[in-house]
UniProtKB/TrEMBL annotation:
Highest taxon, organism lineage: Bacteria
Matching InterPro entries: PHA_DNA-bd_N, PHA_reg_PhaR, PHB_accumulat
Coiled-coil blocks: none
Record-given protein name: Polyhydroxyalkanoate synthesis repressor PhaR
Domain PHB accumulation regulatory: 70-107
Residue span(s) of domain PHA accumulation regulator DNA-binding N-terminal: 6-65
Amino acid sequence: MDKPRIIKKYPNRRLYDTEISRYITLVDVRDLVMDAVPFKVFDTANDTDITRAILLQIMLEEESGGEPLFSANMLAQIIRFYGGTLQGAFARYLETALDLFARQQQELTQSWSDTTPLETMTRMAQQNVELWGELQREFMRAAGFDIEHDRGKPSADDGD
């Protein structure tokens, strides 16, 4: 993997890209994200990694610009996971889901010319069922439920 590009944030709130030796804007950082260029942003005042804060700032600008990606309901649901017992599991779930979505989007684009659209969509649907099932099992295990063990037990509705 490539070494991440280092960007320094100075007290005057300016961002300095050490690779190209010049000041850049948040739009430039967004372009790095869009081009999948790995980078880290450090605050020069205390040398802390503020990459997440910069990414959140870019997201805020994107959300307030045109058509938002997140509805108010989605944001409220995400906020409810903060500090809860499932915060870590939820973060892994979202990251895995986004990785899967990006991979499938790329696969769809690449295979569209190789196979018929129906074959491609059928294969992807089968993969999704398997992957989402595994994600759900992991999420439930993280929540403290033993799905595999509970499957063998009769439920209260079985009349046993």
